[in-house]
Amino acid sequence: MAKVFAPFLSIGARGTVAKTLTASQWMGRDYMKQRFIPNNPQTDRQTARRQTMSDGVSKWRFASDLITPADKTLWASYGAKHNVSGFNRFMKFYLEQNYDKVTGTVVSPQVIPEPK
Q: Kind of pairing, strands 2-3 and 15-17?
């Protein structure tokens, strides 16, 4: 990745040039890098992991009968001890309990972790 010390083809370049170089900004600094097209193989394991993450996010946002505001406050306080948000702390434990890394499958029935 190259740093840009002067404007590239314009004042404050952004975007991709000739499908080879991408100009952007990160934390107030301009930079350029080779264009990268991400790989998305959509394997069974990847699909199961994404489904588990999606379920966890839905539970956190919409299942107020399963995760009460008091639970969210506890998750936030536990998360603060580890320098993460309550949501991130919840998702860590949710994924650990609802996705089997060995078989790459979603655990059923789903488990809502206790705040810790």
A: unpaired
Q: What stretches of 13-68 show up as alpha helix (H) in DSSP?
A: 44-62
- Which residue in 109, 105, 116 sits closest to 45, CA to CA? 105
pTM for the full predicted model: 0.68
Q: Which residues pair with 3 in a beta bridge?
A: 31
Each residue's pLDDT, cut to its tens digit, for the chain (116 residues) gives: 555 556 555 556 778 878 888 888 888 777 788 888 888 889 999 999 999 999 999 999 999 889 999 999 999 999 999 999 999 999 999 999 999 999 999 998 888 998 87
The two three-digit tokens of residue 35, written as one number: 């264009």
Residue 23's closest CA among 39, 1, 44?
A: 1
HSE-up (13 A, CA, CB side) for residue 112: 14
3-state percent breakdown (helix, strand, coil) of the chain, nearest 5? 40, 20, 45
